[in-house]
Amino acid sequence: MPSALSHDDMTDVELSWIEKKIEYWIRFGHEAHEQVLDRRRRVVSFRPNTVFAFVRWAGNDFGTIISRIDIVRAVEPGEPHQTLPFVRPGGEILLKIEGWPKIEDVLRHVDAIEAIGIDADTVSPDHWRHVHNQMAVGQQPRAYTPEQHRAFLLRRRAGS
Questions:
Q1: DSSP-derived secondary structure for 103-157
Q2: For labelling, which of 27, 70, 128, 157 has a CA lying 20 to 30 Å from the CA of 110?
Q3: Gap between the Cα atoms of 145 and 101, Å rounded
Q4: Is 40's pLDDT higher than 60?
Q5: What is the pLDDT of residues 106-124, one digit of tens each?
Q6: What CA–CA distance (Å, rounded) separates 45 from 15?
Q7: In a 10 Å sphere around its CB, with 0-12 CB exposed, 13-18 middle and 19+ buried, how is residue 158 labelled?
Q8: Is the pLDDT of residue 4 over 70?
Q9: Are 113 and 144 in contact (CB under 8 A)?
Q10: 6 φ, ψ to 5°?
């Protein structure tokens, strides 16, 4: 039986939405908690080993300042992790893509996975690393298949 988690054991992500200026949002992932700070900001929390996609876009009168998507695994308390703005304490970054055209490619990839009935947050972390690596060198990543997903779930079950 899992032990009770305190909020301190979770990964917090600060989200903001100021139309056409700052848009930080979660594309997928199961939030364990949400705290509304004000009408433009909230903090969502994820349990350890939860995978989520964090999209950040910010712009000003001259155009885009940042556009980025990170697919992150929330870490266990005390586990080594990478730091990431607006994510506390940080996490294991499985995919990091910058630039809106590439982000749209990742979002289409997520849509394709969901279209075959698989929740994107249950996809093998190795697949997200594959997508990151392929896109980093300008290549198209392989599609994620139900067979790959079934094999990943069986490996994970056998390892626990």
A1: HHHHHHHHHHHHHTT--GGGS-HHHHHHHHHHHHTT-PPPPP-HHHHHHHHHHHH
A2: 157
A3: 24
A4: yes
A5: 999 999 999 999 999 999 9
A6: 11
A7: exposed
A8: no
A9: yes
A10: -90, 165
